[in-house]
Every structure is written in C-alpha cells, then in structure tokens.
C-alpha cells in the first residue's frame, strides 16, 4: 500500500473512532430512579440496589446509567419528575418511597416497564392484576411493612406491658399507607387492651406538634407508622421520643440504629437488592407482566437495649431471645 493511501485510511479510521465511541455510549441502557425522598436518606438502600444490578451483570457507569429524580419530600413534584424520565427514554423506571412514586410513574406511562418497591399490597392498590401474573407494565417488590402493623403493636405491648394508652403517628398525606395502618391497629387494639390516640404529621413542624399532643394525652407508648417521610425524619422522631421518655416502636432497623427503642419489619436492604435484580432482568429482555411480584420474606426484630435501660424498661428475656439484633 502506498504511504499516502495508508495515511488516508488511518486518518479515516481515527476520525470514525469518536463516532463509534459516541454510538456505544448512546447505546448504554439507562434506568430511571424515581423517589419521593432524597439521595442522602437512601444511601444504604441505593448501595443494595446497585448490588442487585451487579448480580445481573450491570454496573453503574460501566454498562448502565442511572438517572435519579428526587421528590425531596414533596409528593406534588413526582408527576413532573416521572414525565421527565419518560421523555429521557429510560429503559425502565424504578420507584421508591411508597405508593406515591409508583402512582406517579404509572399515570405517566403504560409502555415503559416499572419496577416498584412499596410497603402496600400492589393488588389492592390496583397496580397489578395478581402477584403471580402482574399482567401489565408494572412489577416489583412488596416489602410488607404496612402489613405487619398488628405484629408491631403486639410486640410493643409485650415490651411495655403496663401501657394502656398508645399514640399512633401517621402521615395523612400518604393516604393509602395511613388507611391500612389505622385499619390494622384499630382492629388489634381492643384484644390487647389498648386505647389509641391518632396523631397526624406531614411536616417537621407537625411532628413537633404531634409530640406535644401525645404528651398532653399522657401516652404510655408511641407507634410510628411505616412511611417514607417518617423514615426521612427518623433522627427527629427518635430525639423527641427520648426527650419525652416515650417508648416507641418503628418499622425498620434504621430507627433503633440511631437510638430508637425497637423496630419490627422487612429487611429493606434485601428488598432493594431484589429491586435491582428485577431492573437488571428487564434490561436483559424480561417482561414485567411475566415477573411475579416478590413478597419480602426476611423480617427482623431489632431492640436497642441501651435505650430500653435509659427508659427504665426491663426487656423480657423471651423477647431478647427472639430479637434478630440487640443493640447495646
């Protein structure tokens, strides 16, 4: 080959190389991650989600991109954020933070696959036709924290046997979770000999006001509903419960890890890892309609023994023996 022809050929190849790289980059699939919460509050769960993706062969930044959209605790922002993800042509949308995020995504698209991670029964919510055969463009993980309310109330009664008046803190902005929580605890309370006082909070200021109300009520204990907003405000909730010396039960281990008394609920890290697995399987060609909804099977009881001692509570040995973790 003549030198001039070789240089021309080489020059053409070099010129074409950036185009090929850009084509490969453009071809990288992307996942839209829509949450009612903020990135800071979901750091541990995001790591679990990425581990699930890795289990299916996807690593963020290497062969998959994740487009994050955060509601920053404002439910009314979710529809616009979901719409933005659709216009960005992501391959799948993963929703976090309870039913509001999932409803926003569902209302925006009937074509894009949606993987949810929610604490309510998706069949009752009308998200899927059945757990075994979702039937549409949605599937995901049901981690059931909203459906173990009765068990949490029983454990609270066992931990604080002298309690008679229990305040139940709910977020009225989260209509579906609040309704199911109240249904369950109000049905269980009479058999446990408990009187309930419902207190509402949808903002940080309302949480402060709710504690003032339950102090006036002279509540013996506090039941905090499973809710994305309360998860975000867990340090505030634990601080106020400690300040007012009120025994409290929560839905996830994140609360006793920052000083809360007790939690009982799903292992959320495992649930989000499974959501990552489902997102990866859909990227590989699986159809949401054919992926059964995964119901969480790992539940954990966590007791902060140091907090119990501070409150003057003697934890029954039988309860300590059943705890998955005792924080000293």
Q: Which features characterize this protein?
A:
seven-stranded mixed β-sheet; disordered N terminus; 328 residues; 13 helices; six-stranded parallel β-sheet; Rossmann fold
Describe the protein.
- There is one protein chain.
- The protein has helices spanning 3-27, 43-55, 78-87, 99-108, 149-159, 175-192, 204-216, 228-232, 234-243, 254-257, 268-283, 305-310, 317-322, and strands at 30-35, 65-70, 92-96, 114-118, 138-142, 165-170, 195-200, 221-224, 248-250, 262-266, 294-295, 299-304, 325-327.
- The protein is an alpha/beta fold and 328 residues long.
- The protein folds into 2 domains: 8-144 and 268-298, Rossmann fold (3-Layer(aba) Sandwich); 146-266 and 300-327, Response regulator (Rossmann fold).
- The strands form 2 sheets. Strands 7-6-8-9-10-12-13 form a 7-stranded mixed sheet, sandwiched between helices. The protein has a 6-stranded parallel sheet with strand order 2-1-3-4-5-11, sandwiched between helices.
- α6 (175-192) links the parallel β6 and β7.
- The protein is elongated and about 60 Å long.
- The termini are far apart.
- Residues 1-25 have low confidence and may be disordered.
């Amino acid at each position: 080959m003549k030198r001039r022809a070789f240089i021309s050929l080489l020059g053409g190849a070099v010129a074409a190389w950036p185009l090929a790289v850009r084509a490969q980059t453009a071809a990288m699939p992307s996942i839209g991650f829509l949450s009612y919460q903020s990135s800071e509050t979901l750091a541990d769960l995001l790591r679990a989600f990425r581990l699930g993706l890795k289990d299916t062969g996807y690593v963020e930044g290497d062969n998959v991109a994740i487009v994050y959209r955060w509601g920053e605790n404002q439910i009314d922002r979710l529809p616009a954020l979901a719409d933005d993800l659709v216009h960005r042509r992501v391959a799948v949308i993963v929703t976090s933070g309870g039913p509001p995020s999932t409803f926003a995504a569902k209302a925006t698209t009937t074509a894009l696959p949606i993987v949810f991670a929610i604490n309510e029964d998706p069949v009752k919510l009308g998200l899927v036709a059945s757990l075994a055969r979702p039937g549409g463009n949605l599937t995901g993980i049901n981690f059931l924290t909203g459906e173990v309310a009765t068990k949490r109330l029983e454990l609270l009664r066992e931990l604080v046997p002298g309690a008679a008046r229990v305040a139940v803190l709910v977020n009225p902005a989260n209509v579906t979770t609040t309704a199911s929580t109240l249904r369950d605890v109000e049905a269980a309370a009479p058999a446990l000999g408990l009187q309930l006082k419902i207190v509402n909070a949808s903002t940080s200021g309302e949480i402060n006001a709710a504690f003032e109300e339950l102090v006036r009520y002279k509540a013996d204990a506090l039941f905090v509903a499973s809710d994305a907003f309360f998860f975000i405000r867990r340090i505030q909730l634990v601080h106020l419960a400690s300040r007012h010396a009120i025994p409290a039960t929560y839905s996830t281990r994140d609360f006793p890890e920052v000083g809360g008394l007790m939690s009982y609920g799903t292992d959320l890290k495992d649930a989000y890892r499974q959501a990552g697995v489902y997102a990866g399987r859909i990227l590989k060609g699986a159809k949401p309609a054919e992926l059964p909804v995964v119901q969480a099977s790992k539940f954990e009881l966590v007791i902060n023994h140091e907090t119990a001692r501070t409150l003057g509570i003697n934890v029954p040995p039988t309860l300590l023996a059943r705890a998955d973790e005792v924080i000293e």
